[in-house]
Structures are given as C-alpha cells and as structure tokens.
Design a protein that fits this description.
Chains A, B: This is DNA-binding protein. 2 copies of one chain form a homodimer. With 88 residues, chain A is α+β, with helices and mostly antiparallel strands. Helix content of chain A is 33%, strand content 41%. The radius of gyration of chain A is 13 Å and the shape is globular.
C-alpha cells in the first residue's frame, strides 16, 4: 500500500478543488487520503469531507479523526486531521 | 449515568467561557460532555477541546468525534461533534 496522499487545506484553493483532487487521488494513486487544516481552515476540512462523502458515498470510509494543536509563529493553533480510505 | 451535558458552540461566548462551563459540568453534574459547532464555529470546537485537554490532561478522554452536515435556513452546513468523558 502506498503512503497516504496528504492534503494541507489552505485558503488558496476552493472546497471544490480539494474535493476533485481527493477523488482524483483515490481513483489513481492511493487508497488513503489525509486531510489536515489549522485554525480557520478547520471548518473547510469538515466541508471537504462532507462533500467527498456525498459524492462517493460508501466508496469511502472515514478511518480516523484527530484534534490536536501545534505551534506556528509562536502561537498555539488547533488543527483537525482526518484520514479517508477508499472502500472499493 | 446522567445524559451527556450538551454544548452548542456559538459566537456569543468565548472559548474560555466554554472551557470553564465544561470543567464545571464535569466536576459537578455529569460524566460526559458533548460539544457541537457548525460552520465557522467548528474551529472553536477544536480550540475548546484542546484547551480543556490542556487543563485536565488525563482527567478527560475523547470518546468520539463525528463530522456531519445538516440543513439550516435551506443551506447545508457542516458540523463537528465530539464527546469527552471524565476519566476520574
């Protein structure tokens, strides 16, 4: 099995762009995709997950979700990290 | 066991207020607290969780996390829901 395809969510790409990137990855390269977002991008992670789930339905399963924090520019910032798995 | 104490995170209260409310609840009324936030409040849920975890450390365990969506004012909106459990 390949390493999970990793996506760090940022403001520079739209939810739809990330969703397409994830579907593309699942169809071609990898069985697992990790999606991570920090601070204000955390809600975008949730939107991306819901959108992927709505499109692929039982084609993906949610492997795990973690909430953590890390230091960026000397500030502690929360992140949400989840991993989805191709189910086909 | 009592029903879980439920918190719907909104803009009207600060992270610190929620953290104090949760610690108070865990100390007095209940063994489980559910925290839910939608849309832009999702990242606040993560901040609240990290802050509670930092304060209580092994005193709380994360029971589960769910990402879902629901319809509000005819728009589909993502939410993050988690449940923490008193470990003492």
């Amino acid at each position: 099995m390949n390493k999970p395809y990793q996506i760090i969510v940022s403001r520079s790409k739209s939810i739809e762009d990330y969703v397409l990137e994830i579907i593309e990855a699942l169809n071609h390269n990898t069985e697992e995709v990790e999606i991570k977002g920090s601070g204000w991008d955390i809600n975008k992670v949730a939107d991306i997950y819901n959108s992927v789930k709505e499109k692929l339905k039982d084609g993906v399963t949610l492997d795990y979700i973690t909430i953590g924090s890390e230091t960026k520019d000397r500030r502690r910032i929360s992140y949400l990290l989840l991993r989805i798995k191709r189910a086909y």
